[in-house]
Amino acid sequence: MSDLISIIIPSYNQSSYMEETLSSVQNQTFKNWECLIIDDGSTDNTREVAARWTEKDSRFKYYFKKNGGVSSARNVGLNNALGDFIQFLDCDDILKKTKLEVSINAFNSNHLVTNIVLTDFKMLNQGNIVGVPYCNLKKEYFNFESVLFGWNYDFSIPIHCGLFRKEVFEKLRFSVELSAQEDWLLWVKIFRDYGDGYFLNEALVLYRKNVDGRTQSGSYIPDQMAVLKLLKKELNHQLYEKLLFVLIERYLRIIEDRTSALNGIKSTRSYQLGRKLRRAFTRIGIIKYFENLLP
Asked: Where are the alpha helices (H) located in 27-150, listed in sequence order?
């Protein structure tokens, strides 16, 4: 029997995407897998959708847990996985049909010495495949220092791009203290403890741009501050100090670039004309008149 792959799918109120996601699992050309659907306390019909799949294909398994976030849901999957390899998949994303086969073949060919095989990805927007991903993955990114210092600036890695040997997760789990950026902390630990990853430059994952998703709203700065506190426990003083300097310099450059762009706008003739008109309208009371009309 070939190696078993455990596919872990956390889900919270995403039943509208489940059919497409689970179909992409069932259609895999590599057949020796189990799929663990971890329902993170959904209040929609996730349970009913999952039941249809577990009834028609015993490789699908359903677990319900009290809502605790995506990290705790993935950890439940890891605790129950029986596979020799681990594949993560979010409930609104899709695996191309050869994702598992191509990845497992990379492990088995030429006695490849690695614990992680990664593939590229494309975006999925409103059901349409968008060719340009939000970052361009390169083989030189899949190492400890690149992930530590380049994350969220040069690139980030969707967790489902990877196929992992189970040994990676014998002791490692997702941090339940984080509501976002948990994948950065995890990748840092993986590449620190298990070496570089092997990259297949083939887009075998479709990553959905979901406007309702947790990564599409709000600022990520509070989450990044939270993950920095946890990274302090994982890094030696020299590395942590270097990381802080890299981030501070990066943010100062962003501020400088935006200030420069704003100053450039202020120096244009149209901006200057607008200011003159505003002063003129203010003197004759037009601005105040329109302000009074606003609710």
From this structure: 46-56, 70-80, 99-108, 144-150
